[in-house]
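Page 47, continued from p. 46.
Same chain as before, 405 aa.
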Amino acid sequence: MTDVIIIGAGAAGCMAAVFAARYGKSVTIFERNANIGRKLRITGKGRCNVTNNSSVEEHMKNIPVNSRFMYSSFAMFGAEDTMNFFEELGVPLKTERGNRVFPVSDNAEDIVNALYREMKRLGVKIIHKRVKSLILEDGECRGVFSDGKEYRGGSVLIACGGLSYPKTGSTGDGYSLAESAGHTITELKPSLVPIVSGDKYCAELMGLSLRNVTLKLYDGEKLIFSELGEMLFTHFGVSGPLVLSAGSHIRKMHPNRYSFKIDLKPALSAEQLDNRIRRDFAENLNRDFSNGVRKLLPAKLIPVIVKLSGIEPERKINSITKEERRRFGELIKAFPISIKGFRPIDEAIITSGGVSVREIDPKTMESKLTKGLYFAGEVIDVDAYTGGFNLQIAFSTAYAAALYM
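Result:
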């Protein structure tokens, strides 16, 4: 018999284990992988963007799904608490562009190792086995079944992630366990995931990274997202921070309903860009069009944008009309990318959807349906944009659950 049983040794599970143990509870954590924190090790390209150094209000703004559910747990344990927690465990942190917080070492292993050391110091028991089912008796959760054995506990926390990155152990077990206790699972979709395009030129541009561009997402004619930053062309379409954030605004994916437009020169107005093009043209009057715009755009992009402009690559610049020049400028300010769909959910950073927030107490993270059952992290139907916001959701919900367990 243990006071607290936690299913999943990821960000939420480990944080909850530490605080439950600090509050004097005996804690047993079940992790199906041989090592803890496998997904944590690969977040932020292996650097681990632990939180975002900003206010509760800023965090709420960056949660497009069920943000109000997070208010209580953010108030209890926010970004500053997360930063203090890891620095007290001996991991110096730094704040980068966009208030993203990383270990000074740029090594996610430091975050995982700090959690592991603290759990061992506090006597948390780690069992590397998969939980098959919950022990449910008289409307209460009283433990778990694993490997043919019964493990009894005063409280059980489901913190085993979503469906994204299944190679790290996120295979959706938490959803089936929650359903067995009567919980509703909202539609599961990929979030923070690359986008597939039907445009063949994306493959031609594969590997091209664009910086300081503005990506705009349209639902039909309606602009629903616009942000300055970085993105990347791939063999299937587009990826990178801007694309991942924009994709969070796509609620019902249908081929050709949504589209991207990239402003390749956001620092210039249409008039300023036209003046710049005219200057470049004036310096290259007798050259071919494809050679006369080399200073304007990345080399890999020129053949594609020349083709899209409808102006023959061999046309001499001195023969290009004012109207053709204007349309070329418009193309630079609104380079089109069609949207066919999302990449598979196993390539997503997080899963959108999960255990319905209507069935969870937002202050305690306890199930409203089954006493003694708690939830934390990605398994809950709350997700945010990139920038450390999703890990803060995991840490805040884990703290709230630990406090009340």
